[in-house]
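## retry 2 of 3
previous attempt timed out at serialization; input unchanged, resubmitting
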Amino acid sequence: MEDLITLVTQVRSGSEEAFSVMVKRFHSLAFGMAYGALRDHHLAEDAAQDAFVVAFQCMNKLEEPAAFPGWFRTLLARQIRKAQSKRTRATPPNDASLSPGPLPQPLEAAATAEDARRVHAALNQLPEHLRSTTVLFYFH
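## retry succeeded, writing output
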């Protein structure tokens, strides 16, 4: 805990290196929490990254350095809600030029999609705390 207090103090003094250490320390937690809620790798990464940016910008507002983990989770929860809100309002593009390139063979694509569907279905059946733990273990 003392190490965390030192890191927060250094970040408040403008140390980007100290913040980098904090990001490394809390990234798995942030991604796991975001992925558990959003169930999308890219959205989870974005939400985690946005939460770290806000944390860096607002570090001086944190009254008690030892409270960083809980404070950060609150920031992350806000970013997750924003991502969920954006996702419900987003519409898929209709532009054919956005195609990702050559498509895989039909059987290959079907097998991959089916595997992904099964994994997501199994993850969705887990309680939140087990889903987060599983995501952190297997995906990070």
